[in-house]
Write a structure and sequence with these properties.
By secondary structure, the protein is of the alpha/beta class. It has helices spanning 2-21, 52-60, 74-83, 111-117, 193-196, 199-213, 245-267, 307-310, 337-345, 360-363, 443-460, and strands at residues 27-33, 62-64, 67-68, 102-103, 121-127, 145-149, 178-182, 185-190, 219-224, 274-280, 314-317, 326-328, 332-333, 374-379, 383-389, 392-395, 398-402, 417-421, 424-427, 461-462, 467-468, 476-477. The protein folds into two domains: 26-371, 3-Layer(aba) Sandwich (Alkaline Phosphatase, subunit A); 376-477, Arylsulfatase, C-terminal domain (2-Layer Sandwich). Strand 7 (178-182) and strand 8 (185-190) form a beta hairpin. It holds the Pfam family Sulfatase.
């Protein structure tokens, strides 16, 4: 009997040892803000708005300073994040509106579908903006659950003062009330600023519930906040709490949201096994003046290919894996999250060509050099407007919007002028504001980047030079 007891104990100890050696898949949470500029939170230079939870992310994780969205506009940026590809590679561009007849092709593999195939429970909350009607909602792209809105919360028949639009010549007056979708079904509508003020709180509360319900399984949560995109409005708890008006109130509420997620991970004792990422889809919509954010000193903002349009905050925390309180200046894009998270979770990569690169060795401090040296600044349907190589950026001739005209105030937009941008070379290491054209000093750099631009035109095409790319995939077309 004693021998059997000893044998049984030995088997139990061996089982415990073997089990302990099996690595547990990390949970993944991506929190994406809408139109939050590079300088909108304290870790990136904002003053006057306390952001203790963004600060905590920076203190306990890594802050990237050269992280770029693949395009500086909603739909395009979100397509890149989820597919790991330039948006024009997957046929997506601009910002979808009611009546738009395109959507992300469900045949595209996403972060959600790859992690789901690897055993993850996947959920999305917030703003989708990759398809306006079923079946082109998140459930067709690898998410097990979805609660949110199909597009930006300014896409509704309400004016800048919160009143119903009655002018028959105003296209926005013909738009429907903002639908709230659960799964694939409309469950509510939003038609007032008071209702919109509850969006951040509602999505945060549902995020906390999702984490608690799935804490015993590996999960992927994509929380896409609609703010600080206009119209800005905060819930009663935060309204009037900031010294910087409603914009500050909104940032403080988003900071609270980050804190709720951090606290829940701590309470459920899963923080050490959770990769938490905080990003923005693109830079600030600067023509809204005091209701817009800050590009942190970079040139221009949303919907432009200047640094103020694409360069945004990136904070990542993964305790015991990513060193806290560090800053990294490696060039990185939102396309790089898919292959990096696939590697971190033991998931497969998409079968089709992607543009993202694996940054896991850099995240884990196994190397001090990121794998990306080149980034293409596309905008519109397929306009190649710039090329970056290391610290060099060649701006190619193109038409562009500009925020140098009159800004707006109190929720009303200012004027966006149109300009023709000439060829120019900038050294972002010495001139991050893109103020000094140095192409005459470095003709060899210009030629190298022109060669890289030609590579992109062969691969992805370029409407500005009437080139058709060899490796473009089609978006879904709605009937």
């Amino acid at each position: 009997m004693k021998k059997w007891y000893i044998l049984l104990v030995g088997i139990c100890l061996l089982t415990i040892h073997v089990t302990a050696q099996v690595p547990q898949k990390p949970n993944v949470i991506i929190i994406m803000m809408d139109d939050m500029g590079y300088g909108d939170i304290e870790p990136y230079g904002m003053t006057g708005i306390p952001t203790p939870n963004f600060n905590r992310m920076a203190k306990e994780g890594t802050r990237f300073t050269h992280y770029n969205a693949a395009q500086a506009v909603c739909t395009a940026s979100r397509a890149s994040l989820l597919t790991g590809s330039y948006p024009n590679r997957v046929g997506m561009s601009g910002a979808l509106l009611p009546g738009s007849k395109t959507a992300l092709n469900p045949e595209e593999e996403t972060i959600a579908s790859l992690l789901k195939a690897s055993g993850y429970i996947t959920g999305m909350l917030g703003k989708w903006h990759l398809g306006n009607e079923a079946p082109y909602f998140p459930l067709s792209y690898g998410f097990d659950s979805f609660y949110g809105i199909p597009y930006s919360h300014d896409i509704w028949p309400i004016d800048y003062d919160g009143n119903r639009i009655t002018d028959p010549n105003n296209m926005r007056g013909k738009w429907p009330a903002l639908p709230v979708i659960e799964g694939n079904k409309k469950v509510d509508s939003i038609l007032t600023l008071q209702q919109a003020s509850l969006l951040t709180r509602t999505f945060t509360e549902k995020a906390v519930s999702f984490i608690k319900e799935n804490k015993n399984n590996p999960f992927f949560l994509y929380l896409a906040h609609p703010m600080p995109h206009v119209p800005l409005v905060a819930s009663d708890k935060f309204s009037g709490k900031s010294e910087m008006g409603v914009f500050g109130d909104v940032i403080m509420e988003l900071d609270w949201s980050i804190g709720e997620v951090l606290s829940t991970l701590d309470e459920e004792k899963i923080a050490d096994n959770t990769i938490l990422i905080v990003i923005s889809d693109n830079g600030p919509w600067l023509n809204f003046g005091d209701n817009a954010g800050s590009s942190g000193g970079f040139k221009e903002g949303k919907s432009t290919s200047w640094e103020g349009g694409t360069r945004v905050p990136f904070l990542i925390r993964w305790p015991d894996k990513i060193e806290g309180g560090t800053v990294n200046s490696s060039l990185m894009t939102n396309m790089d999250l898919l292959p990096t998270l696939a590697k971190a979770t033991g998931s497969s990569l998409p079968k089709n060509k992607i543009d993202g690169l694996n940054f896991l060795p850099l995240w884990l401090h196994e190397t001090n050099k990121g794998p990306r040296e080149v980034f293409y600044y596309y905008f519109g349907k397929n306009n190649l407007e710039g090329v970056r190589y290391k610290n060099w950026k060649l701006v190619l001739p193109h038409p562009s919007g500009s925020y140098t005209a009159l800004h707006g105030k109190a929720g009303h937009p200012g004027v966006i002028s149109r300009v023709n941008v000439p060829l120019a070379l900038y050294d972002l290491a010495h001139d991050p504001g893109e103020a000094y054209d140095v192409q005459q000093l470095y003709p060899e750099i210009v030629q190298k980047l022109i060669g890289l631009a030609e590579d992109a035109r062969v691969d992805l095409g370029d409407d500005l030079t009437q080139r058709v790319g060899n490796n473009i995939r089609k978006a879904a077309i709605l009937p």
